């Protein structure tokens, strides 16, 4: 037996993208159903991004889920770039008039889930074998298996918010979809520890042994990363080995304040730049990691996902309120223009701050010259700062 359901917008993926879209639609009285192949507890525990642009905070405020963020988030007015022991502070507030907020993706997701559950959002978790059909007709269908039963949702629109490995992007015919990709020859080994951060601001460091990042989640919880080989494994890294290497890469000044302890999360993530075009096919819209990936240097992944949703929600709300399709019709080109600029920034900062195995002595000197230029030029620092705090939506 097939269970048949109907809604206005079927949202595939209950990550930050899908949850925020369902909240913004609900605020405008538009019904949606959200499906995910995992459950709430699993999604809430995925440790990922940590730095929110002002535009992201504004979107969460607009959605009505920013109260805890304002109480617990840490406003940051600058960050440090370090190169072989030399440090340069990018004063983002002085250079742009804006700041960023340190608040974990786990917390953003919890806040969104709390609100969606309180408001009775329809969710289907642990779904399998998700299939999208009739994307070019007025009514599209999302079919899946859940608890051994077949479910079919008919809807006006499908929002593909199912991340890089989701099914939505793969449902666009290959002769329509163009993809662009760069895979970096290293990964990031990340740990979380219940200790105060080494510095009250973030430090991005390029050392001869590789990149290191000192970040945080709160005044008592730190997040650190080390560049590692792609075939490396967390089991190769005891906490002691991690602390020793981190201290070396951050340099003696920072290392003097490093508070070490047992890590409670340790994982390796690969680095990738990826864009899929177009981000709309018929009634299907792609948003967030389903359409694009940035390397994490610069903290753009989550922010870019939220920017897509702001544009998509505006278009869908306009469609249902007034029948005006101007914004949904231009969704793909509007967001892709910004996506490519953010891809450029994340690629540039990654290229500056990592040790690339293939780099010649010439390219190493170019990295150093770029750092020296940044340290002395307000114009160059301002360019980094305006990207870091977030480019305008359009
Ligand atoms: P996701 O958060 O990936 O959510 C997609 C959802 O879709 C998931 O819940 C998934 O279970 C679900 N799904 C997948 N396939 C299906 C399917 N077939 N059917 C139904 N549901 C499905 N960004 C930063 O800015 N800083 C960081 O430090 C950082 N670290 C990261 C570390 C890792 C390991 C990863 C993977 C990403 C990281 N990012 C980071 C990027 C950031 O977390 C993402 O950009 C952000 O999560 C994108 O949100 P999203 O909602 O588009 O996708
Ligand atoms: C974090 C991750 C990033 O990629 C970044 O640029 C800054 C902070 C973090 O996880 O805290």
Descriptive overview:
With 394 residues, the chain is of the alpha+beta class. It has a domain at 2-74 and 101-181 and 272-355: 3-Layer(bba) Sandwich (FAD/NAD(P)-binding domain), CATH 3.50.50. The protein has 13 helices and 19 strands. It has helices spanning 16-27, 40-44, 54-63, 67-72, 92-96, 105-118, 239-250, 252-255, 301-322, 326-329, 331-353, 361-376, 378-389; strands spanning 2-12, 32-35, 51-52, 74-76, 79-83, 86-90, 100-102, 122-124, 128-133, 140-146, 149-160, 178-193, 203-207, 210-216, 222-228, 263-277, 280-281, 284-286, 292-293. The strands form 3 sheets. Strands 1, 2, 8, 9, 10, 11, 17 and 18 form an 8-stranded mixed sheet that branches. An 8-stranded mixed sheet has the order 6-5-13-14-15-12-16-19. Helix 1 runs parallel beside helix 6, helix 1 runs parallel beside helix 9 (301-322) and helix 9 (301-322) packs antiparallel against helix 11. The longest helix is centred in the last third of the chain and has 23 residues, at 331-353.
């Amino acid at each position: 037996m097939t269970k048949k359901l109907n809604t206005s917008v079927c949202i595939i993926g209950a990550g930050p993208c899908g949850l925020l879209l369902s909240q913004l639609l609900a605020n405008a009285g538009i019904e949606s159903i959200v499906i995910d192949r995992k459950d709430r507890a699993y999604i809430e525990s995925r440790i990922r991004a940590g730095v929110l642009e002002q535009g992201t905070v504004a979107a969460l405020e607009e959605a009505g889920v920013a109260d805890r963020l304002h109480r617990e988030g840490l406003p940051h007015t600058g960050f440090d770039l370090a190169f072989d022991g030399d440090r340069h502070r990018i004063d983002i507030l002085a250079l742009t008039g804006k700041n960023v907020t340190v608040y974990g993706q786990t917390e953003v997701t919890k806040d969104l889930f709390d609100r969606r559950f309180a408001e009775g959002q329809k969710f289907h978790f642990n779904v399998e074998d998700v299939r999208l059909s009739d994307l070019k007709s007025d009514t599209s269908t999302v079919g899946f298996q859940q608890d051994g039963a077949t479910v079919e949702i008919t809807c006006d629109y499908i929002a593909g918010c199912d991340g890089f490995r989701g099914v939505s992007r793969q449902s666009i015919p290959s002769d329509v979809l163009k993809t662009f990709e760069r895979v970096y020859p290293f990964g990031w080994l990340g740990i979380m520890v219940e200790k105060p951060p080494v510095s009250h601001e973030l430090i991005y460091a390029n050392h001869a042994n590789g990149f290191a990042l000192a970040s945080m989640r709160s005044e008592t919880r730190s997040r650190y990363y080390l560049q590692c080989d792609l075939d490396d494994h967390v089991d190769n890294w005891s906490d002691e080995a991690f602390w020793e290497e981190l201290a070396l890469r951050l340099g003696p000044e920072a290392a003097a304040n490093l508070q070490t302890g047992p890590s409670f999360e340790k994982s390796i993530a690969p680095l990738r730049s990826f864009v899929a075009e177009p981000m709309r096919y018929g009634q299907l819209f792609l948003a967030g990691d389903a359409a694009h990936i940035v390397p994490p240097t610069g903290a753009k992944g989550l922010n870019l996902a939220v920017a897509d949703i702001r544009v998509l929600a505006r278009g869908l709300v306009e469609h249902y309120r007034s029948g005006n399709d101007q914004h949904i019709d231009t969704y793909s080109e509007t967001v892709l223009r910004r996506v490519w600029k953010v891809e450029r920034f994340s690629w540039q900062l990654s290229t500056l701050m990592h040790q690339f195995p293939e780099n010649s002595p010439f390219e190493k000197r170019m990295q150093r010259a770029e750092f020296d230029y940044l340290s002395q030029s307000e114009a160059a620092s301002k360019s980094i700062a305006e990207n870091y705090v977030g480019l305008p939506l359009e």
